[in-house]
Specification:
The chain is of the alpha/beta class and about 650 residues long. It folds into 3 domains: about 5-200 and about 245-305, Thiamin diphosphate (ThDP)-binding fold, Pyr/PP domains (Rossmann fold, 3-Layer(aba) Sandwich), CATH 3.40.50; about 330-485, Rossmann fold; about 510-635, Rossmann fold (3-Layer(aba) Sandwich). Helix content is about 40%, strand content about 15%. The strands form 3 sheets. A 7-stranded mixed β-sheet has the order 7-6-8-9-11-10-15, with helices on both faces. It has a 5-stranded parallel β-sheet with strand order 1-2-3-5-4, sandwiched between helices. β16, α25 and β17 (about 595-600) form a beta-alpha-beta unit. α2 packs across α4 (about 55-65), α6 packs parallel to α7 (about 155-165) and α23 (about 525-535) packs across α27 (about 625-635). It starts with 14 loop residues before the first helix and ends with a helix. The structure holds thiamine diphosphate. Thiamine diphosphate binds next to loops.
Length: about 650
Amino acid sequence: MDEQSYKYLSAINSPSDLKKLDEAELPLVCSELREFIIDAVSNNPGHLGASLGVVELTVALHYVFNTPDDKLIWDVGHQAYGHKILTGRRDVFHSNRKFKGISGFPKMSESEYDAYGVGHSSTSISAALGMAVAARMKNLNNRHHIAVIGDGAMTGGMAIEALNNAGVNNPNLLIILNDNGIAIDKNVGAIKDYLANIVTSKAYNKLKDKIWHLLGGGTKYGANTRAIVKQVGNAVKGSILRRSNLFEAFNFRYFGPVDGNDVLRLTKLLRDIKNIQGPKLLHIITVKGKGLELAEKQPVIYHAPPSAFNKKTGELIVKEPCDQVQPPKYQVVFGKTIIELAEKNKKIIGITPAMPTGCSLDMMMVKMPDRTFDVGIAEQHAVTFAAGLATDGFIPFCNIYSTFMQRAYDQLIHDVALQNLPVVFCLDRAGLVGEDGPTHHGAFDLAYLRSIPNLTICAPMNEQELRNMMFTAQTENKGPFVIRYPRGRGVLRNWKTPFEELEIGKGRIIREGKDLAVITIGHIGNEAAKACATLDEQGITTTHIDIRFLKPIDHSLLKDILTHFDHIITVEDGVITGGLGSALDELATDMGIHSQIVRLGIPDRFIEQGSQEQLWHECGYDAEGIVSTALSLIRTKN
Ligand SMILES: Cc1ncc(C[n+]2csc(CCOP(=O)(O)OP(=O)(O)O)c2C)c(N)n1
């Protein structure tokens, strides 16, 4: 559809334009907005299912509330495409997630309508509560604070901590629980069961609805309504459900569940609820992927379709190439290798916090359901749960995206490393991840891990190395072990070779030369290998070391390099401050050696989104960047 065919949307440049419309026209706005999102994402892949599911909610919220004065906070933010389009970013939406384009997540510096920057899950209630308390302290009594959170994000510990705290602060806070019954993969845990119970408990909800209408839907009795409804509700609730509503136990007024894909029902409800002071929770039921049949039927794939797709049928245009044709993704190597290892070593357990498909642990889940655990969006719990298993002789492989591991830093130190327990952490998506941008880059792990005693930290340069590192990690007495690897494909087609145990802390020499040394860790070493080949063609010979282990680091090999080379480049797909380059600098200082060390890696700022190649280039550590650093070093030398 071209711009002209969006009769309503093309006239909406901000929510005030939306408010000028007749309420009866809102369903038409919704259908255009849905069409626009499908059209845009079919050309430029990104998150899809979640945004399609909340089209009606997005329109209703911007119609009823006074954004940006009222604060609207989207949890995770992958569902906020409609919000972006209605708040002045329709014309630039084609640049969503692209290099120099707009972010795929709400971002405070991008728009005043993005009340809070997000990307990691389960933060919305805490942030909205902070804003609500701030409003009270500043006497901004008419300001509303709305957190929109999914049923998956509601399983995150932070969300529960925030509910607990909100319940005693009496904030002017509305939580909208967007329940579509699924996270990225199927939602898990007792809260999911609880929500499903509420939805199916018709008797309870009918009665609550009746009481609500009897009392004038919130408008008639204003602020007192809450107390009255609560009183009446409490009196009858026990006899019907024989248990209290979880959210009411947290002192929230609970409304719902209602059809969240009915925009007119939503506007009416939101207007009513708006008049009630205090903490409130509206539970809406929506369909993830609504409006695109394939996205509704296959919500896991269409959470974020991996390629462009036919906007009418939803069919993916570029099918994922099969792994016989090109090297596999690292995550697939992990998924297949853990099964091979677990078949032989019965102590191995697989753990993921809500990312089974993303990290490929879903393969083990199918084969060994009793030994594989999806614990929900709960990284902290995942780590200590693994620690508990390890105390009893198991060897848990805890697969967590590098960026989400940041959540569980204390658990890693206090519950695993200090106890010296044999938990194997496989940190997927380490380094710059590409289009998801700064919220998702796995930039910090090498730096934040290196200072923790007892850890072994390594990174594979290719798929075989990943297999061997996983093999080594599960052999006797290895203690806590971290293997970090990037998003995307490796470099080998024949990767499934027999396992080899690696000597802990031993690097390997990839190439030997005399002019310059290049020391790398992990997959980015392949860019260095290309750079060394280019330099060789220009008559500059290099020694390339794949250090493999950041901790313990190969002191004897590094000492040798420091003694023999005046010029050394370190390359890492991680922050410069604190990683491999820093480790080498420290060693040189300790040895009193003054070689010139140039550290390439992520500079001390947040890196925006773009393809991985664009971002490596921007940071100067793709093959081209390494060559130009090497040439300038050699020139200074001469
Ligand atoms: C701390 C953290 N862990 C994992 C993720 C990855 N993640 C992004 S969205 C999502 C599922 C969210 O499910 P839900 O809240 O139900 O939203 P829906 O997509 O179903 O609308 C997950 C696990 C994340 N963003 N943050």
